[in-house]
Design brief:
114 residues, alpha+beta, five-stranded antiparallel beta sheet, 4 helices, 5 strands, 39% helix, 18% strand, globular
Length: 114
């Protein structure tokens, strides 16, 4: 997903109405823009129906120097900048922290919208 598509996906998730071009969105470049998105994700309760679980599950997250991840429930599902339930942190040396976080946010929102 390119930068504009990803930023538009995030703006839609945030229910942000904008009247200027999508290429002016800065979720991929600005912590001030991206962290409210991470915070919103961290406050979500995932409905039990989405997870085939007996109960709704919360979301926790961590942003570290080797990767960014969201954990749903008690290790029920991990979503990172490397995808869903990744085996390794492939992108650790290739991407900046904000790039990894933006990518993990895109992965989460894509999963959440399915």
């Amino acid at each position: 997903m390119d930068r504009n598509q990803g930023n538009k996906l995030i703006a839609d998730f945030m229910e942000y109405a904008f009247d200027y071009p999508v290429d002016r969105l800065r979720y991929d470049k600005s912590w001030d823009s991206l962290m409210p998105v991470v915070d919103k994700i961290g406050k979500l309760m995932i409905p039990k129906e989405k997870l085939n679980s007996g109960w709704s599950l919360d979301v926790s997250y961590a942003i570290t120097r080797i990767g960014t991840y969201f954990t749903i429930g008690d290790n029920f599902l991990h979503i990172t900048d490397g995808g869903r339930n990744p085996k390794t942190w492939d992108n650790a040396s290739k991407m900046s922290t904000i790039e990894r976080t933006w990518t993990a946010v895109i992965e989460f929102i894509t999963w959440y919208n399915e």
